[in-house]
Amino acid sequence: MIIIALVMAGGTLFKYCANSTQNEVTGERQHISMTPEQEIAMGLQSAPQMAAEFGGLSRSAQGTALVEKVGNAVVNGSSAVKTPYQYRFHLLADQRTVNAFALPGGQIFITEALLGRLKSEDQLAGVLGHEVGHVVARHSAEKLAQMELAQGLTGAVTMATYNPGSVNSGAYIANAVSNMLQLSYGREQELQSDDLGVRFMLESGYDPEALIDVMAILAEASGPNHTPEFQSTHPSPENRAEQIRKSIAKYRQ
């Protein structure tokens, strides 16, 4: 069983490491098997369903125009414009859920609930710049590759820890390994998107200090009983604000 598990784990790791590409904006080497064209297609296919889950697209022509204006300014004025993605910015009708998110390939969404809490175009640029950061850093494709790795290693751990007298023990350990991998990746990607958001804001002429204000808005929206950071896939708004300050100092040097 141990030998089979080692072969399974080795094959999974080899496949993961073999799929390597360099990100032209971040300069990082990433383990990704998808092409940008596949990311764009995935995002376009998923966009209608995701919009429907948040009440569909907003009927506010003014709000929609503002989101498109600021989003396009962030992309066209920054290094994000060098990427092959098809950036489209959408305002969602949901007035209760404070949220913004990006799909692979450039489909970016923000809810009316979050837009209504923002006080300036700079804050909106911070939110949208962060989401553009997810696209540019290819986080969705990276996440899919990491999930494939986690699933392969989970199978290997299950095989290695299999006990005929206690079937659940192996499954428990395997699930724990998978969950730990996914948790750490989520936090790193969020912080990198904040960093890229700061960079894109500065490049496109927006005030990156506004992104710190957005963190205060998110903290207020989550309320006093929000999930502790160590139980979440995202860093706390307070810790994100501290990292944003470091990014501002770095890019302003």
Could you give a short description of this structure?
With 253 residues, this protein is mostly helical. The protein is 62% helix and 8% strand.
Question: Which key features would you list for this structure?
Answer:
9 helices, 62% helix, mainly alpha, 3-stranded mixed β-sheet, two-stranded antiparallel sheet
Describe the protein's topology.
Elements: H1 2-18, E1 20-22, E2 29-31, H2 36-52, H3 61-76, E3 88-92, E4 100-102, E5 107-111, H4 112-115, H5 121-136, H6 139-160, H7 167-203, H8 209-222, H9 237-251
Helix pairs in contact: 1-6, 3-5, 5-7, 5-8, 6-7, 7-9, 8-9
- The arrangement of helices and strands along the chain is HEEHHEEEHHHHHH
How many β-strand stretches?
A: 5
Note the beta-strand portion. 5-15%
The structure class reads mainly alpha
Number of H- or I-type helical stretches: 9
End-to-end distance:
55 Å
Question: C-alpha Rg, in Å?
Answer: 20 Å
Q: Looking at the chains present, what oligomeric state does this protein adopt?
A: single chain
Give average pLDDT, whole number.
Answer: 80
Walk me through what this model shows.
With 253 residues, this protein is mainly alpha-helical. The protein has one domain (2-251). Helix content is 62%, strand content 8%. The protein is built from 9 helices and 5 strands, in the order H-E-E-H-H-E-E-E-H-H-H-H-H-H. It has helices spanning 2-18, 36-52, 61-76, 112-115, 121-136, 139-160, 167-203, 209-222, 237-251, and strands at residues 20-22, 29-31, 88-92, 100-102, 107-111. The strands form 2 sheets. The chain has a 3-stranded mixed β-sheet with strand order 3-5-4, with helices on both faces. It has a two-stranded antiparallel sheet with strand order 1-2. A hairpin with a 6-residue loop joins strand 1 and strand 2. Helix 5 crosses helix 7 (167-203) and helix 5 packs across helix 8. Mean pLDDT is 80; it is low at 5-9, 11-16, 152-162 and 166-185.
